[in-house]
Amino acid sequence: MSEPIGEKDKITILLHEYDTLRQEIVNRMNNGFQLLAVCAVLLTLLFQAKSTVMIVVGICVLIAVIVFGLWTTFGNINNAAARLRELEADTNTRAGEKLLIWESECAGALTGWWRRIGLRPRFKASIDVNKNDFPVEPLVDQQSKEK
Predict the structure, then answer these.
(1) What pLDDT digit, counting tens, does each position of 105-115 carry?
(2) Read out DSSP for 23-47?
(3) Which of these, 67, 79, 83, 115, has the minimum number of CB atoms within 10 Å of its CB?
(4) Domain boundaries, the chain
Protein backbone atom coordinates (compact mmCIF):
# COMPACT_ATOMS: atom_id res chain seq x y z
CA MET A 1 0.00 0.00 0.00
CA SER A 2 1.38 3.41 -0.90
CA GLU A 3 1.75 6.33 1.46
CA PRO A 4 -0.72 9.23 1.26
CA ILE A 5 0.65 12.17 -0.68
CA GLY A 6 1.72 15.29 1.18
CA GLU A 7 0.24 18.77 1.01
CA LYS A 8 2.98 20.03 -1.32
CA ASP A 9 2.21 17.27 -3.82
CA LYS A 10 -1.53 17.99 -3.54
CA ILE A 11 -0.90 21.67 -4.23
CA THR A 12 1.24 20.75 -7.27
CA ILE A 13 -1.56 18.59 -8.65
CA LEU A 14 -4.12 21.35 -8.04
CA LEU A 15 -1.89 23.91 -9.76
CA HIS A 16 -1.57 21.63 -12.78
CA GLU A 17 -5.37 21.46 -13.01
CA TYR A 18 -5.47 25.25 -12.55
CA ASP A 19 -3.06 25.78 -15.46
CA THR A 20 -5.05 23.42 -17.65
CA LEU A 21 -8.33 25.20 -16.93
CA ARG A 22 -6.77 28.63 -17.57
CA GLN A 23 -5.66 27.35 -20.98
CA GLU A 24 -9.15 25.96 -21.58
CA ILE A 25 -10.63 29.42 -20.94
CA VAL A 26 -8.19 30.99 -23.41
CA ASN A 27 -9.16 28.36 -25.99
CA ARG A 28 -12.86 29.04 -25.45
CA MET A 29 -12.26 32.78 -25.87
CA ASN A 30 -10.54 32.01 -29.17
CA ASN A 31 -13.63 29.99 -30.12
CA GLY A 32 -15.70 33.11 -29.49
CA PHE A 33 -13.54 35.10 -31.91
CA GLN A 34 -13.88 32.33 -34.49
CA LEU A 35 -17.64 32.53 -34.00
CA LEU A 36 -17.45 36.23 -34.85
CA ALA A 37 -15.60 35.37 -38.05
CA VAL A 38 -18.23 32.78 -39.03
CA CYS A 39 -20.99 35.30 -38.35
CA ALA A 40 -19.22 37.89 -40.49
CA VAL A 41 -19.05 35.39 -43.37
CA LEU A 42 -22.73 34.49 -42.95
CA LEU A 43 -23.64 38.18 -42.85
CA THR A 44 -21.65 38.82 -46.03
CA LEU A 45 -23.43 35.96 -47.77
CA LEU A 46 -26.72 37.29 -46.49
CA PHE A 47 -26.07 40.71 -48.10
CA GLN A 48 -25.48 38.98 -51.44
CA ALA A 49 -28.79 37.11 -51.40
CA LYS A 50 -31.21 38.08 -54.13
CA SER A 51 -34.37 36.45 -52.85
CA THR A 52 -36.44 37.32 -49.79
CA VAL A 53 -36.61 33.65 -48.79
CA MET A 54 -32.82 33.42 -48.80
CA ILE A 55 -32.58 36.52 -46.63
CA VAL A 56 -35.09 35.17 -44.09
CA VAL A 57 -33.38 31.76 -43.98
CA GLY A 58 -29.99 33.46 -43.66
CA ILE A 59 -31.16 35.62 -40.77
CA CYS A 60 -32.58 32.55 -38.99
CA VAL A 61 -29.34 30.62 -39.48
CA LEU A 62 -27.28 33.59 -38.33
CA ILE A 63 -29.36 34.01 -35.17
CA ALA A 64 -29.19 30.27 -34.43
CA VAL A 65 -25.39 30.23 -34.87
CA ILE A 66 -24.95 33.28 -32.64
CA VAL A 67 -27.25 32.00 -29.86
CA PHE A 68 -25.86 28.46 -29.84
CA GLY A 69 -22.27 29.65 -30.11
CA LEU A 70 -22.54 32.21 -27.33
CA TRP A 71 -24.44 29.81 -25.08
CA THR A 72 -21.87 27.02 -25.40
CA THR A 73 -18.81 29.29 -25.33
CA PHE A 74 -19.82 31.35 -22.30
CA GLY A 75 -21.26 28.31 -20.56
CA ASN A 76 -17.92 26.49 -20.86
CA ILE A 77 -15.98 29.56 -19.78
CA ASN A 78 -18.22 30.05 -16.73
CA ASN A 79 -17.92 26.38 -15.74
CA ALA A 80 -14.12 26.49 -16.01
CA ALA A 81 -14.00 29.79 -14.10
CA ALA A 82 -16.18 28.35 -11.33
CA ARG A 83 -13.80 25.40 -10.99
CA LEU A 84 -10.84 27.81 -10.97
CA ARG A 85 -12.42 29.68 -8.06
CA GLU A 86 -12.79 26.36 -6.23
CA LEU A 87 -9.15 25.50 -6.94
CA GLU A 88 -8.02 28.92 -5.75
CA ALA A 89 -9.89 28.52 -2.48
CA ASP A 90 -8.59 24.96 -2.00
CA THR A 91 -4.98 25.85 -2.84
CA ASN A 92 -5.04 28.96 -0.65
CA THR A 93 -6.44 26.94 2.25
CA ARG A 94 -3.84 24.22 1.84
CA ALA A 95 -0.99 26.73 1.56
CA GLY A 96 -2.23 28.77 4.50
CA GLU A 97 -2.09 32.09 2.67
CA LYS A 98 -3.71 33.93 -0.21
CA LEU A 99 -1.64 32.87 -3.23
CA LEU A 100 -4.20 32.57 -6.04
CA ILE A 101 -6.77 35.35 -6.43
CA TRP A 102 -7.44 35.96 -10.14
CA GLU A 103 -10.82 34.27 -10.61
CA SER A 104 -11.92 34.91 -7.04
CA GLU A 105 -11.23 38.65 -6.93
CA CYS A 106 -10.06 40.12 -10.24
CA ALA A 107 -11.65 38.23 -13.15
CA GLY A 108 -14.08 39.79 -15.58
CA ALA A 109 -17.16 38.08 -14.14
CA LEU A 110 -16.51 39.87 -10.87
CA THR A 111 -15.17 43.21 -12.08
CA GLY A 112 -16.10 43.40 -15.76
CA TRP A 113 -18.77 44.95 -17.90
CA TRP A 114 -21.52 42.44 -17.03
CA ARG A 115 -21.11 43.20 -13.33
CA ARG A 116 -21.22 46.95 -13.98
CA ILE A 117 -24.59 46.77 -15.72
CA GLY A 118 -26.00 44.69 -12.88
CA LEU A 119 -26.01 41.16 -14.30
CA ARG A 120 -24.88 38.47 -11.91
CA PRO A 121 -22.49 35.85 -13.26
CA ARG A 122 -23.51 32.20 -13.12
CA PHE A 123 -21.29 31.06 -10.25
CA LYS A 124 -21.39 27.62 -8.78
CA ALA A 125 -21.38 27.31 -5.03
CA SER A 126 -17.98 27.37 -3.42
CA ILE A 127 -16.43 24.10 -2.32
CA ASP A 128 -16.98 22.72 1.11
CA VAL A 129 -13.73 22.39 2.96
CA ASN A 130 -13.15 18.84 4.09
CA LYS A 131 -11.74 19.38 7.57
CA ASN A 132 -10.17 15.90 7.64
CA ASP A 133 -8.21 16.55 4.46
CA PHE A 134 -6.60 19.82 5.60
CA PRO A 135 -4.09 20.25 8.37
CA VAL A 136 -5.48 21.70 11.57
CA GLU A 137 -3.18 24.71 11.26
CA PRO A 138 -1.93 26.27 8.02
CA LEU A 139 1.46 25.14 6.76
CA VAL A 140 2.97 28.58 7.22
CA ASP A 141 2.09 28.61 10.93
CA GLN A 142 3.60 25.15 11.38
CA GLN A 143 6.83 26.22 9.70
CA SER A 144 7.12 29.39 11.78
CA LYS A 145 6.56 27.41 15.00
CA GLU A 146 9.33 24.99 14.08
CA LYS A 147 11.88 27.82 13.79
Answers:
(1) 777 666 666 55
(2) HHHHHHHHHHHHHHHHHHHHHHHHH
(3) 67
(4) 7-129
